[in-house]
From TrEMBL:
Quaternary context: Tetramer of two alpha and two beta chains.
Organism: Candidatus Alistipes avicola
Name by which UniProt lists this protein: Tryptophan synthase beta chain
Signal peptide: none
Family: Belongs to the TrpB family.
The UniProt record lists the keyword Membrane: no
UniProt-listed HAMAP family: Trp_synth_beta
Record gene name: trpB
Keywords: Amino-acid biosynthesis, Aromatic amino acid biosynthesis, Lyase, Pyridoxal phosphate, Tryptophan biosynthesis
Reactions this protein catalyses: (1S,2R)-1-C-(indol-3-yl)glycerol 3-phosphate + L-serine = D-glyceraldehyde 3-phosphate + L-tryptophan + H2O
Classification via InterPro entries: Trp_synth_b-like, Trp_synth_b_CS, Trp_synth_beta/beta-like, TrpB-like_PALP, TrpB-like_PALP_sf
PANTHER family: TRYPTOPHAN SYNTHASE (PTHR48077:SF6), TRYPTOPHAN SYNTHASE-RELATED (PTHR48077)
Length: 453
């Protein structure tokens, strides 16, 4: 019988996260303090994040040990399977071999738990009692709700209003784990009130929700911190467990990828699977193409500008060097809520600038068609976010067929779509449309940025 999937035994599980900054010739530019515009210090970052996470954010150490307790909790669902997509290959009639890393097997259904667990852990070690965060599609809020309840930390989640209304089951998951969920923009913060004053029907964005969560955390520095589910270096760092496992699993398959693909919101699942393979390119002479797939309606990597920008709308977060559409960019209400974010993490941005990774934008209808094909051939209904990675893999597999090359493609299935069926309902009933953005529209929010570089 053909091998369908490989799972590592506990004895072979990675014990360290990989920090690609240690191997980058051009390091990412430093984050700046939002007020002074000087490089931010660990001490300043520690006012918002747990100190250990602030240290990781600025670290250049190549490897960082995964704490015992975190490794133990990972065992609830890790190692996640590396699966050969025979069904998809057959449907595409391609000579390419397609594999996917199945991060949807985590208790909340996506890769977000990989960083939620260590973030809750480091905060609890420091004696933090309350955390605040935001969530787009609800995956991050669910993951953080699960992790904080394990460590006895209380959590407030600002949920982007469009998702709050579209995804009541995500909210209920968070409530079940014990978290408090607030639709953003809300009346509970100055940032939320400012957004509502501008537009009372504002459907929200990750940028506004982050402002609300950061603002609330900063009011109680003695026992409250904020946490973020993507973009930042320490978040991507925790996600590298995906790529480290994948390297070993591909070795056990006796194969090695020519192409590695991840969908792209802020860069955490993409960097998580991709960076260990970029390392092999940088230091072991491998030549894998590592490709980020973003939605056509939120094209920061393919049409954004490399600039310092805030992570949020109100400008409370550090200024990060990133490919960005401007923090006032308001993405259309596409169903891949986790990808509706204006900027990209600073490591990914530097790697893209240096052409060490690639990026492509794909329209919504193509991604949902890919999601449906994947569900029908591999049995898993993917998250609309993950469907972007599948669509990217399908494009590569079709090209392999045209060129008659048997290349090996690995993509990250960042999550399942069982709580996102509304998107499929809209797609199957023909109600979804592709949206395009004019250059003028994109320029408007990019030109508003203060040019620091
Ligand atoms: C949050 C999320 C994403 C996007 O975030 P990244 O940090 O870019 O990975 C992608 N897929 C799923 C399933 C998500 O929950």
């Amino acid at each position: 019988m053909k091998t369908k999937k490989i799972i590592l035994p506990d004895s072979k599980m990675p014990t360290h996260y990989y920090n690609i900054v240690g191997d980058m010739k051009n390091k990412p530019l430093q984050p700046l303090h939002p007020a002074t515009k000087k490089p931010i210090t660990i001490e300043q970052l520690s006012g918002i994040f747990a100190e250990e996470l602030a240290k990781q954010e600025l670290s250049t150490e190549r490897y960082i040990e995964i704490p015992e307790e975190v490794q133990q909790l990972y065992r609830i669902y890790r190692c996640t399977p590396m699966v050969r997509a025979y069904g998809l290959e057959k449907a595409l009639d391609t000579p390419a071999k397609i594999y996917f890393k199945n991060e949807s097997v985590s208790p909340i259904g996506s890769h977000k738990t990989n960083t939620a667990i260590p973030q809750a852990y480091y905060n609890s070690k420091q004696g933090i009692k309350h955390l605040t965060t935001e969530t787009g599609a609800g995956q991050w809020g669910s993951a953080m709700s699960m992790a904080t309840q394990h460590f006895g930390i209380d959590l407030k989640v600002f949920m982007v209003k469009v998702s709050f209304n579209q995804k009541p089951y995500r909210k209920l998951m968070m409530n079940t784990y014990g978290a408090d969920v607030i639709a953003s923009p809300s009346n509970t913060t100055a940032a939320g009130r400012a957004a509502l004053a501008k537009d009372p029907n504002d459907s929200g964005s990750l940028g506004i929700a982050i402002s609300e969560a950061v603002e609330m955390a900063m009011q109680h520095p003695e026992d409250t911190r904020y946490c973020l589910g993507s973009v930042l270096n320490h978040v991507v760092l925790h996600q590298t467990i995906i790529g480290e496992e994948s390297l070993k699993q591909m070795e056990m398959f006796g194969d090695y990828p020519d192409v590695v693909i991840g969908c792209f919101g802020g860069g955490s699942n993409f960097g998580g699977i991709g960076f260990p393979f970029v390392r092999e390119n940088l230091i072991n002479g491998k030549k894998t193409r590592v490709i980020a797939i973003e939605p056509q309606s939120c094209p920061k990597l393919t049409r954004g500008e490399f600039q310092y920008d805030f992570g949020d709308t109100a400008g409370l977060t550090p200024l990060l060097p990133m490919y960005t559409l401007g923090h006032n960019f308001h993405p259309s209400d596409i169903h891949a809520g986790g990808l509706r974010y204006h900027g990209a993490g600073s490591i990914v941005s530097q790697l893209l600038k240096d052409k060490l990774i690639e990026a492509q934008a794909i329209p919504q209808l193509e991604t949902l068609a890919a999601g449906v094909l994947f569900a029908r051939t591999e049995g898993i209904i993917p998250a609309p976010e993950s469907a972007h990675a599948i669509a990217g893999a399908i494009r590569e597999a079709k090209r392999a067929k045209e060129e008659g090359i048997a290349k090996t493609i690995v993509f990250n299935l960042s999550g399942h779509g069982q709580v996102d069926l509304y998107a499929y309902e809209q797609y199957l009933s023909g109600k979804l449309k592709d949206t395009t953005i004019s250059d003028a529209e994109l320029r408007r929010t990019i030109d508003e940025l203060e040019k620091i570089i």
